[in-house]
Amino acid sequence: EAGVTQSPTHLIKTRGQQATLRCSPISGHTSVYWYQQALGLGLQFLLWYDEGEERNRGNFPPRFSGRQFPNYSSELNVNALELEDSALYLCASSLGDSLAKKIQYFGAGTRLSVL
Amino acid sequence: AQKVTQAQTEISVVEKEDVTLDCVYETRDTTYYLFWYKQPPSGELVFLIRRNSFDEQNEISGRYSWNFQKSTSSFNFTITASQVVDSAVYFCALKDSNYQLIWGAGTKLIIKP
Prior knowledge:
The complex is a heterodimer of chains A (about 120) and B (about 110).
Chain A lengths: L4 E3 L2 E4 L5 E6 L6 E7 L5 E8 L2 E5 L6 E5 L5 E5 L8 E8 L10 E2 L3 E5 L1
Parallel strand pairs in A: 2-11
Antiparallel strand pairs in A: 1-3, 3-8, 4-5, 4-9, 5-6, 7-8, 9-10, 9-11
Chain B lengths: L2 E3 L4 E5 L4 E3 L2 E3 L6 E7 L6 E7 L6 E3 L2 E6 L4 E6 L8 E8 L5 E3 L3 E6 L1
C-alpha cells in the first residue's frame, strides 16, 4: 500500500514568488495535515483538511492557504514568498479525525528554499 | 494549556548502550493520546507508538520500550542496545480534545559506532 506522497521533493523559488506543494494521502484517509519544519525549529501546524473542508489552521498568515480535492489529495499554496518560508513542509494523513486517537502518517516532505 | 516538553536537545551515546528519551506533557483533559515519532535524516516522520491515557501498561517492541506514568505526566522512550541506525530526531506528541497534535521540540539522538 502506498504511503503519503508529496511533490515536488525540492522546490527553489525567489522572494515574492508563489509556491504550490502537493500531497496525496494514504488510500482511504480523508484527513490531510500540513506542517512547517524550519531549520532548528520543531514542527509547526499549518492546516488541517477533512472531507474537503478546512477544519483548523495554525498561527500562520493568510498567504499560507490550501485546499483539499474530492479525491482527498491536497495542495498547499504559499504566496508572496519570504526568506523565512524556507523549510521542510510535511504532509500527513489519517482516517477521518473524529477521534483524537487517529494516527497521522507522514510523507517525506517538500524542501522549499526561498532565495 | 497543552504542552509537551522534551528537555534533552541532543543525546550522544556509543553503540550498544541503552538510552532513554524523556517526554513530559501537560493537559487538563482526562482522555488524551500520546505518540512517539522518529525522523531519520531523510526527513520523513515515522510513527512508532500511540498510547491512550487509560492504558498505563508499559510497552515493549523489540529493542524499544515505553514507560507511561500518569502520576508524573511522563511518557519516556528507551532504546536498548542502541544501533547506529537508531540515529534520528525523536518527537513526542500529545493529542487531546482539541484533536491537534502538540509536538515536543524533539531530541536528536546520535549513536556512535
